[in-house]
Design a protein that fits this description.
Radius of gyration: 22 Å
CATH architecture of the largest domain: Orthogonal Bundle
Order of helices and strands: EEHHHHHEEHH
CATH class of the largest domain: Mainly Alpha
Largest sheet: 2 strands, antiparallel
Number of helices: 7
Strand order of the largest sheet: 1-2
Distance between the termini: 43 Å
Number of strands: 4
Structural class: alpha+beta
Helix content: 55-70%
CATH topology of the largest domain: Arc Repressor Mutant, subunit A
Strand content: 5-15%
Number of domains: 2
CATH superfamily of the largest domain: Winged helix-like DNA-binding domain superfamily/Winged helix DNA-binding domain
Shape: globular
């Protein structure tokens, strides 16, 4: 039996329905909300993101800023090592799997914070080349350690299972 409250003025009214009736009433094929893999993934993600946001407060970055800065730092290191192309906004967006508009807005914020530079691309007039400033590199390293500590704590009990879960949830998406 699922139990819920429906507000009818100041006093909530207690209602009870079987799980199947609740599911049908809600338009779901799942008898329990927690039977929906997407809903469970959402719940786990919210908890993890809350921990990451809390850790990143120490360095003054939002989660999105961290992802863009860490991605640009990673891609720039790959380029310097001869294993990647010039870092552009579109390359950062592809790496982070974020949309171009949001990536551009976050990179502009990082530029105002003097953590990255956005300069015209040497061969493509439409593109912006992204370079991480020395301060951006220092902050990225510090922030990465904070986020990796959150990851280690949050995911430590399920190491091998996480790789399997990633493969099951997103076949072919991660290479």
């Amino acid at each position: 039996m699922a139990t819920g409250f429906v507000s009818s003025g100041p006093q909530p009214i207690r209602i009870s329905m079987t799980s199947d009736r609740v599911a049908a009433s809600a338009g779901s094929r799942h008898a329990e909300a927690e039977a929906s893999p997407g809903f469970v993934l959402w719940q786990v993600t919210v908890v993890w993101q809350r921990l990451v946001r809390s850790a990143l407060e120490a360095v003054g970055l939002t989660h999105a800023q961290f992802v863009m800065l860490a991605s640009a730092t990673w891609l720039e290191a790959q380029h310097r090592a001869g294993n990647g192309e010039i870092v552009t906004q579109s390359l950062v967006a592809a790496h982070a799997r974020t949309d171009a508009v949001m990536t551009s807005e976050v990179l502009r914020t990082l530029e105002r914070k003097e953590l990255v530079r956005r300069v015209p691309h040497p061969t493509d007039a439409r593109a912006k080349e992204i370079s991480v400033t020395p301060e951006g590199k220092r902050l990225a390293k510090r922030a990465i350690k904070l986020v990796e500590a959150v990851d280690d704590e949050f995911f430590s009990a399920n190491g091998p299972e996480l790789s399997a879960l990633k493969s099951l949830l997103c076949p072919g998406y991660f290479r």
